[in-house]
Structures are given as structure tokens and as C-alpha cells.
Amino acid sequence: MTDYLLDGGVLADGKAVQVLIKDGLINQIESVVSTLGATNLQKISINGCIILPGFVDLHTHLREPGREDSETVESGSRAAAKGGFTAVSAMANTFPVADTAGVVEQVYALGQATGLCDVFPIGAVTQGLGGTALAELGAMADSKARVRIFSDDGNCVFDPMVMRRALEYVKKFDGVIAQHAQDPHLTKDAQMNEGLISSKLGLKGWPAVAEESIIARDVLLADHVQSRLHVCHVTSAGGVDIIRWAKARGIQVSAEVTPHHLLLTDDLAESYDPIYKVNPPLRTQRDVMALREGLADGTIDIVATDHAPHPAENKECEWQAASFGMLGLETALSIVQATMIDTAMMSWGDLAMRMSTSPARIGGYADHGQGLKIGSTAHLTIVNPTRAWKVDRDLVASRSRNTPYHGMEFPGSVVATFYRGIPTVLDAKLESATHGN
Amino acid sequence: MRHLLSTSDLTYTQAIRILDTAAEMARISEGPVKKLPTLRGRTIVNLFFEDSTRTRISFEAAAKRLSADVINFSAKGSSASKGESLKDTAQTLQAMGADAVILRHSASGAAQRLANSHWTSGSVINAGDGTHEHPTQALLDAFTIRQHLRVGTGDLRGLTIAIVGDILHSRVARSDVHLLSLLGAQVILVAPPTLLPIGASTWPVQISYDFDSVLPLVDAVMMLRVQQERMSDFFFPTAREYSHYYGLNADRLKKMKPTAIIMHPGPMNRGLEITAECADSARSVILEQVTNGVSVRMAVLYLLLAGAPSEDGEITQ
């Protein structure tokens, strides 16, 4: 196995260091490390770049099995590595649905075979995402995939009794229910945020209250049964307020925000270009600012991508006919830097917490999110904060092209990713020689 | 101006120019020879993904009076109903050499999507897109109001016009609000709160829930069609209660100014939003709206397709 010496980098706090990766582990972090005993040593100059713990995504649609035309575990892993992720969480809304031990083990095995990042399956809460009968949560937890996060994402677990039972049941193995908070009755045929823009465009509105009312109900349920709730993709100022209130009460709730909800707003729909169609929808500038504040003060624990690939034909059509969702893995770091770091709302240490440490803790991914700790597995993401780049949808690693950022320029980039001590990305390019494991 | 997608894209000068041109077209239509050779050899496609016989016939009559070749493409029973996309349909028509596409579609924004894509190079005219806009309907409404209340020229300054009913789902209302206010009229939206869009108070209109208090103020009332299916979505309790508060009937007619006119974009639900007495009264200009629709659509086709010279340079091909 090759050992690596990262030379010329800095830690999140700005301290200049060398890092020695030996036998796949973080061996030393010193101003000058000793390379005695290192074998097959490769020195990598990362002049001035920031060394962060490998990113962990808790919300990724990899589409396999069933929709391999839009993404596969392999192509999604490539996109993840390019975006600096060393672990992703594959959402359950595949065909078949990931609601049995068999499907989650298959997805997990595909991730291991690809070997570019860990792929941790999320199990469905209810059978077939139907919302009425619990899936075999215990069997998925006990499977080789060791599922701890359960979600019907795409659908809300709307029946309050089903939600209550799910929250209770997963306490047995310290699981967590990740809720897609959307009241289906308030959002029938909804197309975009309900507000001035939807009224003008004649597109059916998706009111923020449809999300907030479910968040409010669920934090009360989590409190009542003393279990863990994770709120997927919070989008509204009101949602942030409810979560802040719940945390102050000591309720075990965590929450995520997507990069697109930190950056984009509903007025983009005025183009009627469904590249901006996403569920939950883009909201207003006021909501964007509240989400940034919530992420900065820790009310929102993590950034999660909700990476949602779709084939071209599902976006090259009328808004109403188009699929919901946008790519997210390859642009996440750049957007969080632009919206949170370069605005002085967060430090790089905060970013490491919200993109690595906290998501790994919520998901129970013990091998990840350990920070830069001697002896821990070398999952590392190297960021050059001044290497500006322009997004080009034709150059993405994902199998799909539905990025809303095409042509946009961002201030910094992921230049290298180390997964289990092996570079999956170097010089901002995927390493082709790192397949299999 | 290459496309007509929304009345909010129109400038004051463009709107007046369309109305003046429509007046010219109306004069020609009244003469012994109704046909102009202007668009001879040009191909216009009526691309209708949604049933609307009256709008389609109106555009067809307008195009034919300008000597254009008209192809009617109805999505019903066609490949579009078998899942062919708007993109493929548009590219097929483009390959057949369409100079203009008149698009009716149930999806809001379909016309804008078509115009901004590379799927067709011709002009796109929005003949109604979902619950967004229906610009030629607004133009014929403005034209009709101008004929009756402004002797056929100029703008609509000083007039007050009520639009009554299902504003939320009405593409006619959205187009009317932009255009009538652009032309200087005061618009009052009258509806139960459930049928007003969120944020309508930011539009250039007044809003009232009380039809009776508005009636004495207005120079024209535009009654909107109420779809039967709205009742199942709790927008109002019963048809009877809706009619009681927002239907135009003989009693309400008496509260209007003697000069005020009654309008409706059709098709009407007689007995729901308007009684037969009102629809057929001397104050009703509903059939004139239909007649004027042809003139206005002739004007739009002429200005978009004939490369008409323009003094202000605003309307050119």
C-alpha cells in the first residue's frame, strides 16, 4: 500500500502542517512529520490548501436499483468523490424500494465494490413508501448494511400513528427517522413555493406551512416517545424557528439544509425552466437568510445534498411535466463556501462539523467524521478556497446533467479526496486507478 | 416583438398599436371583401394540447382572413396523447416549416418554454397556458371596452373595471390585470378570499370580497367562469352560495351605472356566475367580444409575421 505525505497544507484553523497517511490511517499531523518507516511514500504538494475530514452526505439519490439511466451507485460514487465525499447515504426510493434487508445489502455491496466512498443505504420507513405499514426496520438494521437511518423521502410519513410507531421502534437499535416534511393535502399537484411568484406564474403553490406543520408535529412526537428525529431538507424560516424551539426544549431533533436552498430562490422559476424545479421547492430570499443563520448557529446541524439525478427528457419539457430534483454532490462544497464561509457566517472548522462530524454522528457511521485524529481512517477532503471554477454540466461525473448551476462561477473547489487513505481525487480530477477494493 | 407570451411583456405603445391595428382589421372585416393577401404562403399551426374550440376557430378565422395556410394540430387522438413530448411535437412542426405556432396548453409557462427553446424558430403566440395567461383574450377585452366606452381610440384611463370570480385559476384575469392597468384603467378584483391568489394585494389592483359594494363604481364587469370541480376542493361551500354572493343577476344589474357593460370570456355557466337575463341583456357585449377576438388575433398575426414597418421600432419581426 502506498503511503502519502501531504505537504504544504493547513488545518481548518489555519495552522500549517504536514500530514502523513500510513497504512490507510492518519499517522502524524505535525509541522514537519517524520517519514521514517513509511513505505512506497508519495509526496503530494497541496500548497495552502485546507485539510478537512472527509465529507459525509446523509441525503443522496443514487437511483440504483431501477433507474440506472439517471445514476448508478458507481457513477454516483464518482460524483461523490469529486465533491469531496467519503460517505454517502443512498435514499430508499429506488425500484424496488429499499424496504427489505435484501435491497439494502445489495446497494451496500455495490458501494463497496465501487470503492470510491462508503455507500450507506437508508431504509424505507414504510413498505413500498406507501405510508401505511412499517417496513422490516429491524431486519434492515441487523443486515450487513447496518441501516440506522430510515426515510420515506419523496413521500412524507403523514399518518401520525405510523410516524409515532416508527420513532418508537427504531429506539431498539438507536435508529433515526429522517422525515420528508410535506403535508400531502396542502401540496396536491404543487409545483413551486406558494407566494408572489407562483401567483404571477400560475403555478400551483407549495406553501411553507405544509412543511412547518409536519415539523411541529414530529418534534412533539419525538419528544413524547423520547426518540430521534431528523428533519430532511428544511427550507423555510418558520421551519428553522420550530427546530430552534425544539432544541431549546431538549428534544432529540437534528436537521439538514441543502446547498441549493442556501443559494437559490423561487424567482428562478420565472424562466419556467424546470432545471429549478425541486421538492421541497426553492423559497424566498428571507428564507435563504434564515437557513444560513440556522446553519451558522447550529439549529440546522448539517448540509445534505439531496443529490437527485434525472435524465434529460424529464427536464426538457413543460414545468408541470418535469421531475423534481437537481444534482448536488459535485457543487456542495463550493456553495457552502460561497454562502457561509465567504460571508463570514461560518469558519472552516464549522464547515467540517456540518459536512463531516455531525452527519457521521447522526447516521452512526463510526468510521467517518472522526476529524483529523491520529490513528483514525484517513478519510480526507482537501479544499483550495481560492481555486475558482465554472460549473459545466457536460463535465459532471454524474450520469445526469440536471445541475442548476451550469455557467455559474464559484470561489473554491475540492482538489483532492482520500478515502481509506487512497486518493479518489487528485488535482481536482478523479483518479481512474482506484476502482475495486 | 417576435412572440406574444404574456401581456406583461407589452409596452404601452405596443398595446395601443395592436388595438389600433385590430380596429383597421375590424373595418376590413365589415367590408365586402373580408380577406387580405398579407400572409399568403405563410404557415401557421394551431397547436392545441387542450380542447378549446372557440379560441382555435377564432385564430383559424384570423389567419385565413390574412391568407395564411393553417394547420390544426389537436393533441386529442394524436401522438401527443400517446406521450409524445412538447419538444418532439414542436420539432416535428418546425421540420414541416411552421412560421408561427399558436399554442394552447394545460401547463403554465408552456408557451414561454417553447419560445425560449430551440425547438422551433417560428413566432410563438400564447393561446392560453394553464392558469398563467391568455394574452389575446385580454387584448380583445381591452378592444371591446375601448369600442364601447372610449369611442374606439386611445387608452382606458378613467375607467373602472371589475373582474369577478375565480381569479386564482384564471389565465384571463392575469392577462387582463396587466393589460387593463397598463392602459390606465382601475381594476377591481372581486372574489371570495379562497379564489384570490396569495399576494394579489401586490398587483396593480384593488381587491374586494363584496360584489354589491363594487357594482355602482364600475364601467364594466368581467364575469369569470367558475369550474364545477372547484366545489370539491372547498373553494366555496355550494354553487348556490357562490351565486348568491358573486353571481351577476337582475338585481345586481340594477345597481350598475346605466352605461356599464357586461363581459364574459366564455364559455358561460348560465345560472352560476351569470343569469341568462344578464347574459342576454342589452348591456351584455359577450358576443361582440367573440367578434372582436378575430380582429385582435388578425392584428397580432399581422404585427408578428408581416414584418410590418413600425414608426417607433418596437414592433418588428
Q: Quick recap of the structure?
A:
Chain A is of the alpha/beta class. Chain A contains 11 helices and 21 strands. In chain A, the strands form 6 sheets. Chain A has a 5-stranded antiparallel beta sheet, covered by helices on one side.
**Number of beta strands of chain A:** 21
* Global mean pLDDT of chain B: 92
* Major β-sheet strand ordering of chain A: 5-16-19-20-21
Taking pLDDT < 50 over at least 5 consecutive residues as the criterion, the unreliable ranges of chain A are none
Q: Give the CATH architecture of the largest domain in chain B.
A: 3-Layer(aba) Sandwich
Q: Which radius of gyration of chain B do the C-alpha atoms yield?
A: 19 Å
Structural class of chain A: alpha/beta
What's the total helix number of chain B?
A: 11
- What distance separates the N and C termini of chain A? 12 Å
Kindly report the greatest chain-chain contact and the residue count on each side: A-B, 23 and 25 residues
CATH topology of the largest domain in chain B: Rossmann fold
CATH superfamily of the largest domain in chain A: Metal-dependent hydrolases
Secondary structure tally: strands of chain B: 9
What strand order characterises the main sheet of chain B? 7-6-5-8-9
Q: Give the overall form of chain B.
A: globular
Order of helices and strands of chain B: HEHEHEHEHEHEEHEHHEHH
Give the full name of the CATH homologous superfamily of the largest domain in chain B: Aspartate/ornithine carbamoyltransferase
How much helix, percentage-wise, in residues of chain B?
Answer: 25-40%
Mean pLDDT of chain A equals: 97
